[in-house]
């Protein structure tokens, strides 16, 4: 009996070892398979190919576009004059300077993102779905695009600077009243090349020494006394910053912005040819 129990115990012990060995073998086998999968996996990379046909197509389009923009230039050689001011330019930035007695008057503006369509173009675009455009209308760029930049005016006097931030009035306010219009072919004083008077408003003003930055307090002209606002406008007018100046500035800015745009297209074409 004791021998039978001993034999049964040895048999059970052997079975447990076999069972344990089989588990170990399975675990080892699974680890081996996973390890093999880990080392045999292949990482794929996507290749990016440049399509030269895209640059070629862009270059061909720019040939026509640049030629068309040059044809529509109103001032291909000399820019319009702004009377009484010395004009200097650097990229899209324009500076006008005039010395008036003890005062130095400086006007600065930037032509970037200043172009908008006139009312005639806006009205035409509203009715565009109702009519079919001719080929000439599709290919010809609008001749009514105008650059109407915001600009600053600085009066430097006695070591201090009186500065104004100005912007053009919306077209609804800059229309010429019918009672002030003469004959159809008679230009009004200060009228720009598009046959329309423009006017501006003062948005802010400040007095400072050095640069006009965020540390300088500025007054919002929308909330100041109306009589004070009129006197500030008269001050600008007496220094030659009035309606005539506003329209001359638009003519200059429009022509100069167009020249900058053509220059940008030429740079884009050179880039596409590299």
Automatic annotation (TrEMBL):
Residues 124-134 have a biased composition (Basic and acidic residues). InterPro entries: MAM33 (IPR003428), MAM33_sf (IPR036561). Residues 116-151, 174-195 are annotated as: Disordered. Residues 135-150 have a biased composition (Polar residues). GO terms for biological process: cytosolic ribosome assembly. Residues 177-192 have a biased composition (Low complexity). Transmembrane segments: none annotated. Belongs to the MAM33 family. This is Complement component 1 Q subcomponent-binding protein, mitochondrial.
């Amino acid at each position: 009996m004791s021998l039978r129990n001993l034999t049964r115990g040895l048999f059970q012990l052997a079975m447990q070892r076999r069972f344990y060995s089989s588990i170990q073998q399975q675990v080892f086998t699974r680890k081996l398979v996973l390890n093999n999968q880990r080392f045999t996996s292949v990482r794929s990379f996507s290749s990016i190919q440049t399509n030269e046909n895209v640059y070629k197509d862009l270059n061909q389009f720019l040939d026509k576009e640049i030629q068309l923009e040059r044809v529509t230039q109103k001032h291909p050689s000399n820019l319009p004059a702004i009377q009484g001011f010395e004009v200097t330019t650097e990229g899209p930035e324009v500076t006008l300077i005039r010395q008036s007695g003890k005062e130095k008057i400086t006007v600065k503006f930037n032509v970037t993102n200043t172009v908008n369509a006139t009312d005639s173009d806006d009205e035409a675009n509203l009715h565009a779905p109702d009519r079919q455009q001719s080929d000439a209308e599709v290919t010809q760029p609008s001749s009514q695009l105008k650059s109407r930049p915001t600009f600053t005016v600085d009066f430097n006097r006695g070591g201090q600077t009186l500065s104004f931030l100005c912007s053009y009035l919306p077209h609804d306010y800059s229309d010429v009243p019918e009672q002030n219009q003469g004959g159809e072919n008679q230009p009004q004083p200060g009228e720009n090349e598009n046959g329309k008077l423009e006017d501006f408003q003062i948005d802010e003003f400040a007095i400072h020494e050095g640069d006009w930055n965020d540390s300088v307090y500025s007054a919002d002209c929308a909330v100041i006394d109306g009589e004070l606002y009129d006197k500030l406008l008269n001050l600008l007018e007496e220094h030659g910053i009035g309606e005539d100046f506003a329209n001359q500035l638009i003519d200059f800015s429009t022509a100069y912005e167009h020249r900058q745009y053509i220059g940008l297209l030429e740079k884009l074409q050179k880039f596409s040819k590299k």
